[in-house]
UniProtKB/TrEMBL annotation:
The gene is hydA. Belongs to the metallo-dependent hydrolases superfamily. Hydantoinase/dihydropyrimidinase family. The keyword Hydrolase applies. Residues 52-443 form the Amidohydrolase-related domain. InterPro entries: Amidohydro-rel, Hydantoinase/dihydroPyrase, Metal-dep_hydrolase_composite, Metal_Hydrolase, Metallo-dep_Hydrolases_sf. Its cofactor is Zn(2+). Its EC number is 3.5.2.2. It comes from Reyranella aquatilis. This is Dihydropyrimidinase. GO terms for molecular function: dihydropyrimidinase activity. Keywords: Hydrolase, Metal-binding. It is an enzyme of class 3 (hydrolase).
């Protein structure tokens, strides 16, 4: 009888902290030993041949089997979405359980479990999307759900069907602060976008390229500043998702320099696409429409600088998969204006290879930073570390063996999502995860999937350190105690 279920030998093991060489032994889905020349045998042994073995990616921003604010269902369900993730080296996803107005949050969570349980092939947690912060949601549902392991919420400052007011943001932040959840915010100024979009379409400028004009940079910059101000008022940490533009990034950097607990995320589309990609004949540019939109090469440089200097903690896919013809991209055929196009691009499979190729291979970030940005920091921020996000004794055996020299020309036909196109068609990528292990199971090998539908497990998230306040609300609120009064919230 073998000593271990699996041994990966001759590995160059990279975590966010260090690089070592050795063998990794796995039993019952966990790493149980890491050592050079490990003694004993494995029921299965893989020779990594000196290749990099990295923690499986954690994708903390992806939309799977979710209805958008416009009522469009994602093209990927929990099977295709998680299979595609696994082929790209990701072993944990944190998609959203999305409340739409009038729905009970508990009911929403139950429905997402029903969807994911029979289909997911890798492990998953859920963020909540909160669009309807009723007294019942704030007073009972959110506190109970946080206790049950849903310790992060996304809120929107734009979209008619999703947006919450500044007043409601303060309500949500206060509950999150008190009960230990992290709030993620989509920061764009709704009225600026609405006003620009209205005038553009009225004047006949409905083509996809005008999406990037309607979603002007200042809309992101203003909302970023406002979201941070709201968080400061009540001393609540905050994470700004899918950041794309220079001024907003600088605002984030300055907030961090002041010692505020404000985190930032960016995504592949902001390093690999620009607004020019939407400038295609007819409605074809819809395939590149996402919000915020990709900007220009100067913004890409700012994104790289923030990845490099630690202003951004996470690089997520924001996989928002919509088919072009059958799905939500062009519901009115060639008469569709950018206002009706589902917002979002796919990227769950390409996320790690894209950052590896453009970042590590081109010397913009180190391998350690790569692991932090794609795996470790996600697990830390959302209460899954060290179970996920590292390769260490006691952690889940989630890792990927990378062929750093593998040249890949991206084509949708070779990807595993259900979208029908990739915005990165024809891109050259150097480096790809060739063997992927999830809780000790070799789920991807030699280009083949070896995982049962429903074999992924739900991960309740702990209340993360990232959600703890810094102890410094607005001075006026601190003054309450001078008057001998108890805190307001
Ligand atoms: N926000 C997202 O997080 N994803 C897709 C579109 C959007 O607005
Ligand atoms: Zn968003
Ligand atoms: Zn998203």
């Amino acid at each position: 009888m073998a000593d271990y279920d699996l041994i990966v030998r001759n590995a160059r093991i990279v975590t966010a902290e260090r690089q070592t060489e050795g063998d990794i032994a796995v039993r019952d889905g966990h790493v149980v030993e890491i050592a050079p020349d490990l003694k004993g045998s494995g029921a299965r042994e893989i020779d990594a041949g000196g290749k990099f073995v990295l923690p499986g990616g954690v994708d903390s921003h992806c939309h799977i089997e979710q209805k958008s604010g416009m009522g469009v269902m994602c093209a990927d369900d929990f099977y295709t979405g998680t299979v595609s993730a696994a082929f790209g080296g990701t072993t944990t996803v944190i998609p959203f359980a999305a409340q739409h107005r009038g729905m009970s949050l508990r009911q929403v969570v139950n429905e997402y479990h029903e969807a994911a349980t029979p289909k997911a092939v890798i492990d998953y947690a859920f963020h909540l999307i909160v669009t309807d912060p009723t007294p019942q949601a704030l007073g009972q549902e959110l506190p109970a759900l946080i206790k049950d392991g849903y310790t992060s919420f996304k809120i929107y400052m734009t979209y008619d069907a999703m947006k919450v007011s500044d007043y409601q943001i303060l309500d949500i932040l206060s509950v999150a602060r008190r009960d230990g959840a992290l709030v993620m915010v989509h920061a764009e100024n709704h009225d600026m976008i609405q006003w620009l979009a209205h005038h553009l379409v009225e004047q006949g400028h409905g083509a996809p390229k005008f999406h990037a004009i309607a979603h002007a940079r200042i809309a992101e910059a203003e909302a970023t500043n406002r979201a941070i101000s709201l968080a400061r008022l009540v001393d609540a940490p905050l994470l700004l998702v899918h950041m794309s533009e220079i001024e907003a990034i600088e605002t984030l950097r300055q907030a961090q320099k002041k010692g505020l607990k404000i985190f930032g995320e960016t995504c592949p589309q902001y390093i690999a696409l620009t607004a020019d990609d939407m400038d295609k004949p007819g409605v074809e540019g819809a395939m590149w429409c996402c919000s915020p939109p990709p900007r220009d090469s100067a913004a890409q440089e700012a994104v790289w600088a923030a990845l490099k200097d630690g202003t951004f903690q996470t690089f997520s896919s924001d996989h928002a998969p919509y088919q072009f013809n059958a799905g939500g991209k062009i519901p009115k055929g060639d008469k569709t204006t950018f206002k009706e196009m589902a917002n979002g691009v796919p990227g769950i499979e390409i996320r790690l290879p894209m950052l590896f190729s453009e970042g590590v291979q081109k010397g913009r970030i180190t391998l350690q930073q790569f692991v932090a940005l794609t795996s470790a920091n996600h697990a830390k921020l959302y209460g899954l570390y060290p179970r996920k996000g590292t390769i260490a004794v006691g952690s889940d055996a989630d890792f990927a063996i990378w062929d750093a020299d593998k040249d890949v020309t991206v084509t949708w036909k070779d990807l595993h999502d259900n979208v029908g196109y990739t915005p990165y068609e024809g891109r050259q990528i150097k480096g790809w995860p060739i063997t992927v292990v999830s809780r000790g199971r070799v789920v991807v090998e030699n280009g083949k999937l070896n995982a049962e539908r429903g074999s992924g497990q739900f991960l309740p998230c702990a209340s993360p350190d990232s959600s703890k306040p810094i102890g410094q609300s607005a001075p006026e609120l601190q003054a309450m105690s001078r008057f001998g009064l108890k805190p307001l919230f």
